[in-house]
Amino acid sequence: MTTSAAGQPLVPQPPATVSGLRQALAQIAPAALPAYTRELDQAADQSRQGADLAPLQRFIAQWSVYVHIQRQPELAGEFRRWEDLADAGDAQQARQAAAEIGRILDQAHTALALHPR
What is the pTM of this model? Predict the structure, then answer.
């Protein structure tokens, strides 16, 4: 992952487009590119089958949030710590982790002017 000055995003938030998100991922989270491509293919197939853009719109929103979080190293680290606690903690820790993950996702949706989850 590219490094940044303390507290600064690694890259600017890209436009909410397939190519903009792909370019940002290539810089900040290249390991996520196979999942991105696989999910894009699934969303495109669903959109074609249903003659509906909703699957592609959900895909763009989901990956915009992912990039928003991953481009901020401190926030991405916090998110990973909560995910780890949700996986490895007891029931109370998992509930707390789920609440914190939800808070981070809600803040990302708000920052991107997306509808909350």
Answer: 0.88
CA 81 – CA 83 distance, rounded (Å): 5
Contact 93, 85 (CB under 8 A): yes
Question: Which tokens is 32 given?
Answer: 């996520």
The DSSP 8-state label assigned to residue 113 in this structure reads T
Percent helix, percent strand, percent coil in the chain, to nearest 5: 75, 0, 25
Token pair listed for 110:
């708000």
Contact 12, 21 (CB under 8 A): no
Q: What is the DSSP letter of 6?
A: T
Question: How many other C-beta atoms lie within 10 A of the C-beta of residue 62?
Answer: 17
Q: Are 7 and 20 in contact (CB under 8 A)?
A: no
Interaxial angle between packed helices 91-111 and 54-70, expressed in degrees from 0 to 180 and rounded to the nearest 10: 100
The structure tokens 């916090």 sit at 78
pLDDT, one tens digit per residue, over 66-111 is: 999 999 999 999 999 999 999 999 999 999 999 999 999 999 999 9
